[in-house]
Design goal:
- There is one protein chain.
- The protein is of the alpha+beta class and 111 residues long.
- It has one domain: TATA-Binding Protein, CATH 3.30.310.
- It contains three helices and seven strands; from the N terminus they run E-H-E-E-E-E-H-E-H-E.
- The protein has helices spanning 15-25, 62-68, 90-103, and strands at residues 3-9, 30-34, 39-43, 49-54, 57-58, 78-84, 106-109.
- Strands 1, 2, 3, 4, 5, 6 and 7 form a seven-stranded antiparallel beta sheet that branches.
- Helix 1 crosses helix 3 (90-103).
């Protein structure tokens, strides 16, 4: 089963940011985009999907954000769903955490 993550932030990661951070963490990988950028997916050098990042939306229900990412979520205005595909989730989590750090957000497993 895929691992569902939530990134809370004010500025969601652009395709350029995902490409740069993904390239630093997993050299030789590539960014794929679907649906006019509504879904962006980083794949490693073998073509294995590592992390999918969906277009963000405003945080409208603060309690949902607090359940998704514990501790101090009230300062964030955007909710970005991400998934780590089936299999070993370590690379996907590492990329998700690096993206959160890059945009000044927080990431957690969706509950």
């Amino acid at each position: 089963m895929p691992t569902e993550l939530v990134l809370l932030c004010d500025d969601e990661p652009s395709s350029q940011v995902i490409d740069e951070v993904g390239g630093r963490l997993l050299p030789g990988g590539a960014l794929l985009e679907y649906g006019d950028g509504q879904v962006r997916q980083w794949v490693d050098q073998t073509g294995r999907a590592v992390l999918s990042v969906f277009a963000g939306r405003p945080v409208t229900v603060r309690a949902d954000a607090d359940r998704a990412v514990h501790g101090g979520t009230d300062q964030y205005s955007r909710w970005v769903d991400m998934t780590v595909p089936y299999g070993d989730a370590r690379d996907g989590w590492a990329l998700a955490r690096a993206l959160a750090a890059e945009v000044g957000g927080r990431v957690g497993q969706r509950g």
